[in-house]
Write a structure and sequence with these properties.
Layout lengths: L6 H15 L3 H6 L5 H13 L3 H10 L15 H12 L3
Helix pairs in contact: 1-3
């Protein structure tokens, strides 16, 4: 079992991954599509994730135009993709 990472570091990783995916977590929260409990669960999943170094490398690439596909190894991939689809009106 992997020790949990720090909450603040993983909060930022989830936020950055959401931004890279084109998801607007603030807007999703405003319309009720993302509860505080959902957000906290996403951060907690990230804290326990074993793909941390891959995530760091992925996020460090940055600078890409437009939304990118969330890597399959991201534990929050499905939820981030759903939030990105909500923003783009695909849901």
């Amino acid at each position: 079992m992997k020790p949990l990472g720090t909450t603040s570091d993983h909060f930022m990783k989830v936020h950055k991954m959401a931004k890279a995916a084109g998801a607007d977590v603030v807007a999703a929260a405003d319309v009720g599509a993302l509860s505080q409990e959902d957000w906290a669960e996403m951060v907690t999943r990230c804290r326990a994730c074993t793909w941390e170094q891959g995530c760091v490398r992925f996020l460090a690439q940055g600078g890409k135009e437009g939304p990118v596909d969330v890597p399959v190894d991201c534990v929050n991939r499905d939820q981030l993709n759903a939030l990105a689809a909500l923003k783009s009106g695909e849901t």
